Amino acid sequence: TDPGSYFGELALLYNAPRAATVEAATADTKLWCIDKNTFNFLVRDGAAIGLQKRIQFLDRVPILRGLTGEERVALCDALQVRTVAANTAVLREGEEGTEFFIIEYGKCEARKAGAVIRTFEASDYFGELALLRSAPRACDVVAVEVTKLLVVGVDTFVRLIGPLKELLEERLAEYGALHVEASQPLR
């Protein structure tokens, strides 16, 4: 392994026997180690801190303020993190909508026929229109800088965010430039 690399974590995480033997390649190798209890404490502590930070971030997303604390924790567990490079398409007009997006950091633009119709930044969200209307994506969304997205699949969206449908419907009025026919209402 390279300097700064680590190994042996899987045996500690899963309380399983070691899967391989590691030998020093040179006599001057320096190795740091921690015991199982310390490792488990650090992993649990790190996970708890990460969860708390994510919940604090979600508290700043206006549409999610209507969720209970328990629903926000469930949402955190369901979120997938996706980092996209600048000038990368996140959504394409006409695609089937299967995901809802919240920007943790970065910037995206909604584009219709090449024209920017809306800009999204940290704590903004998009992708709900196609999920609410069971319709194809109404525009392209492109990351204009490196962007970290929190992604929710349609089933989780319906279960956790769907109850906020009235607030989401109000948001649809802001999309006046877009016309999408609903094939089905939100499940």
Blueprint (SSEs and pairs):
Layout: H1 9-13, H2 36-59, H3 69-78, E1 80-84, E2 88-91, E3 99-105, E4 107-112, E5 115-121, E6 125-126, H4 128-133, E7 140-143, E8 147-153, H5 154-161, H6 165-173
Q: What does this entry look like structurally?
A:
- The N and C termini lie far apart (50 Å).
- Helices cover 33% and strands 22% of the residues.
- A four-stranded antiparallel sheet has the order 1-8-3-6. Strands 2-7-4-5 form a four-stranded antiparallel sheet, with no helix packed on it.
- It contains six helices and eight strands.
Mean pLDDT: 82
Q: Please, how many helices?
A: 6
Distance between the amino and carboxyl termini = 50 Å
Low-confidence stretches: 177-187
**Radius of gyration, CA atoms, in whole angstroms:** 21 Å
Q: How many beta-strand elements?
A: 8
SSE topology string: HHHEEEEEEHEEHH
Briefly note the structural class of the backbone. alpha+beta
Strand content: 15-25%
Task: Report the sheet with the most strands, covering strand number, pairing sense and barrel closure.
Answer: 4 strands, antiparallel
Overall spatial form: elongated
Helical fraction equals 25-40%
User: Major sheet: order of its strands?
Assistant: 1-8-3-6
Would you summarize the structure shown here?
The chain is α+β, with helices and mostly antiparallel strands. 33% of the residues lie in helices and 22% in strands.
What key attributes describe this structure?
single chain; 187 residues; alpha+beta; 4-stranded antiparallel sheet; 8 strands
